[in-house]
Amino acid sequence: MELDVRNGYKGVIRLNHHPDFSEQGYQVISELGRNREGGRITYLANVLNSNQQVVIKEFCFARAGADLSGVKAYQREIEMLQQLNHSRIPRYVDSFEMPRAFYLVQEYKNAPSLGLKRSFHPEEIKQIALSILEILVYLQKQVAPIIHRDIKPENILVDQELNAYLVDFGLARIQGTKIALSSFVAGTPGFMPPEEQFGHSLTEASDLYSLGATLICLLTNTRSVEIEKLIDDNYRFNFQQFVPHISPRFESWLMRIVERNRKRRYANAAIALKVLKSIEVVGTASRIETLVSTIKPRKRATVLGLATVVTLAAVGATFISCQPGDPVRQLLKATECQGFNLSSSCQENTGH
Predict the structure, then answer these.
(1) pTM of this structure
(2) 115 vs 227: CA distance, rounded Å
(3) Measured by CB atoms within 10 angstroms of the end CB, which terminus of the chain is less buried, N or C?
(4) How far is the C-alpha of 165 from the C-alpha of 159, rounded, in Å?
(5) What are the extents of the domains in the chain?
(6) Helix (H, G, I), strand (E, B) or coil at 212
(7) Pick from 89, 97, 103: which is nearest to 45 by CA?
(8) CB atoms within 10 A of CB 307
(9) How far is residue 215's CA from residue 218's CA, in Å, rounded to a whole number?
(10) CA pair distance 195, 174, nearest whole angstrom
(11) Which CATH architecture has domain 122-292?
């Protein structure tokens, strides 16, 4: 506030147009974001008579065309946040209503959204992925597993230590609950798993698809609104030409969590997290490592065993013969054909 002395008038005027929440115990500092289509505005505010800062999310339903879906999203997010207790999910603080809108108050985290233009090294992106997966593991371990349904750069905050925070639970669902036709299209195109687009049931693998899409955007420095540039005519992600420096194993891990068929993804966040921890993000892999990373888990033991036998045989063979077409090489080729059901032309090439 300040005194206005222009043209001889002396009185108090506002320095900004932010809403007055003093009766509710808050003072708005600034506007953090605005979703015009959804009728939502997010503010940073101080709790009066304290040093605590909070985020106040406004759900405005006074505009033309507003319906009860927004009210339900507001109520669902409150109910969801009240039952969650995780250090990287901003906790529920308060909620209140005013004549033209509803308001949700949450803990403030000093971490910008990934929706802002930011560049990360692949190793940093792995750390962000691990951090988000830890949150998803927590959500999926609830008595009734929770599916976020709207994982995208704008809903992930990352601080300077690369700790990720997951926000906006307005679309979240308990696994197994029915999703109405009017709600399953409420996600973000390009980040929604295919099963949600077609109204199929969601599983713990559904959020993995959205996470994969988010990580691919980060790796390629692609904005959310331009994600379609990374999807080919078969509706599959095709981003490898933009990030040639990542390791084959990391690329394979990414491609698995964005598989269009949810049954081909990792079953849940815990499995995806365990696998990712052991992966070197940048670097090269041997041909056998790259081959094994693309094979279904139940066949990997067989392939690794075969590789060991062939390698030992090849070492011994160096003392006997180094000529092209030796028995060891033919055995490897023949076994590849038999084990992976390759074309007859492959068998013809090996003579088996």
Answers:
(1) 0.74
(2) 12
(3) N
(4) 8
(5) 2-107, 122-292, 300-350
(6) helix
(7) 103
(8) 17
(9) 5
(10) 16
(11) Orthogonal Bundle (1.10)
